[in-house]
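REQUEST FORM: STRUCTURE PREDICTION
Request ID: SP-0412
Submitted by: Lab K.M.
Chain count: 1
Length (residues): 579
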Amino acid sequence: MAELFARDTLSSQRWRRRLVPNQPFVVGRTTSIFPVSWDKQVSSKHASLTWNGVQLEVRKIEEAVNPVFYDSRPRISFMLDPGKHFVIGHTEFLLENSEPTMPLPHRSPKTEVTIRPEEIRATSFRKTPGRIELLTELVSKMTASTDHEQLLTIMLQQLLQGIPHSTDVVLLEKEKSEVATYMPVAWDSRDGISTPGGCSQGLIENATKTQMCVLHVWPVDSDSDASDYTQVAGHDWAMCIPLKIKLHQEAALYISGTRAQLDGNLTEVELLQDDIKFAELVGSTFANLSRNLALERRQSQLDQFFTPGLLDHVVTDLESFLAPREAELMVMFCDLRGFTSAAEEHFDRLIPYLNQTSETLSLITSAILAQQGVIGDFHGDAVMGFWGWPVPMEENPLGAIQAAWELVQKLAGKDFLCGESAPKAGIGMAAGPAVAGMIGSRDQVKVTAFGPTVNLASRIEGLTKPLGIPLLLDENVVAKLQCHPSMPPSSFVRLGCFRLAGLRHPTQVFTVNTGDHDWVPTFSQALVQFEDGDWQSVGRLLQDIPGSFGPGKWLTQFIQQHQQRPPAEWDGVIPRTGK
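STATUS: Completed
RESULT:
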């Protein structure tokens, strides 16, 4: 585990930052995360750092005033190996890449104290000087933090400061496995450099299983050679406090140290019980703020997928509510026309073109969200939206078609059936069962849908270009929409039956009737004749169809390609080999 350890050589101020491979960050006096606020010789933004998994790349920012010293010489850039350090002003930055010792079995304690967290909070400090001030300072620092790692650093430092006889503080997180194993994920020590030794496995198990705060005090004169348990040199006592941090992450706070100097009439156990109270208050404050930060981050991630207020009525656990499940969906793919070729053509002014494209994509996502749809994946220059999850489609049965109608009018014009200019986008829609839900990791969340219905919607969208119609629907969409009283039978025009690329079953494809066109019945008659194989009649009927109607032109070209005769095994289904 690689960490950058920064410490002020003139005071006790310091921090640790866990390094993520290939994730650059900046160190400086006023950076939002891990500022070097104690050193005025450090510029606001002084150096850019990137951990590549083996070495730390350090580059001095051009505007930084003071030099970055490495190997006693000022450097502009260099590669730092683990165990080495560099200096800015009076601050030393040490790169560490060490793994903590895993929890180990320990000898039986001389004294064990077990207390429920609620009982601790109900008691008063026996010795209050300094503790209240530290807790006030803790709240002030933590509430100003915007990052989990920063919260963690503050907690570890405050615990070492508030418990003077502590030597090590470790945060452990429960691994997601069949065996309940707690792994060290962060730590700090009295000297700021040492890696803590192994924590007591029995103590951690006791505290986490009972969900109580547990203190162990070991005898000083125990003969370790006569014991089957592993000792940690210099640790006379340890306490463990169970926590729930971030989003449902079980954790444990482990603090250990040396014999406490007795003060007044307090016994060692009474003094350590005061320490438990302090540690529990610090730990629970950290846990609460950690959960809040995680929820805020998760909510900000979800806001890009859902319309505001869509999830407000959820009374169950949000993650369970958004878990992947099968649902009846209506899926819409909207693809911008000519994105790739235009990007090549406008390469000399690619940024302005990309900004214009982003505005169009925003128009698409806004239309989906306005109709309570969910934003699924972005596929390059295409957007997927869907309805039917997490709330049933019945709550807004016309949402999908209203979003599509708004988009097609903005991107292709009101009478798009006979548009004179090429549409700016193609929209394909399909309805049916699919799996939809929230997937992702602790750091990144994604909402998506997948299954045959999603693939079908994508294939139908691909048909919009050859047919010259910017909005196409499958028969399931039409069937669902025609159940609504506001949709008369004349609302849709059937364009043919297609066997789309990669799909086994044929699909009836429709579009929306944009007005009272007297030639639509003629086209419908021509389509029936086409499917029946009477292609001679089709040609005569299509002469009465406007030349700007794309499907009419496409049928004429299809017939011409086959020399006016249907193939030998013609079944009325038009095969498509490309998307």
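NOTES: Residues 224-233 have pLDDT under 50 and may be disordered.
Reviewed by: T.R.
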